[in-house]
Target: HTH tetR-type domain-containing protein
Amino acid sequence: MSTSATSGSERREAIAESGIRIIARDGVRALTHRAVDNEAGIPQGSTSYHAKTRLALLELIVNALAERSTADARKLADSLNTAFESGHRLDITELAAMIAGLVETLAARRDDMRARYALILELDDAPLLRHKLTTQSELHAIARQVTASALASAGLPNSDDRVEELIALTDSLVFHRTAIDETISLETILAAYLHGTSLRQSSSPKIRVN
Model:
């Protein structure tokens, strides 16, 4: 890779990082090319060079957020695959701990999460970008696959409804951890939900086949 290509990539990364900080701190409407230049400490006009329009700037930021969260989901998938290959069957406590770990990882990137939630609310007029942060993203597809496999490994129902429920709960916990309360016990909440799912399964009426 040439030096210019490397420096261009590094500059775009710096622009995305600065844009995320601005949105997390001051909101989406505070995001301007000049504000990003100032935040990043780069020459005026640099952000406009790499992202000529506001939409292009938002796309740069959204892509950075989506790529990081997707990488986290892939790491969880790898951990689960390792467990599956060894023949290990997850129990509810282990599954709750693994999901809680993902929540902690995401919530630890406080600026990323605050920027993500702000963008979700503001990007109604840019649905393609909004989708990258919500249920039509690559991240959501990976999360569905991982969640279904994890539930099955723990002997729990993994229908589409149960998968979407657990994803929604996980996302809600990330928001709660990021914006409301950093002390709540994630594993307790997740384990309670998973135990409830197990009870629902065991209490479901059995269909008799004659």
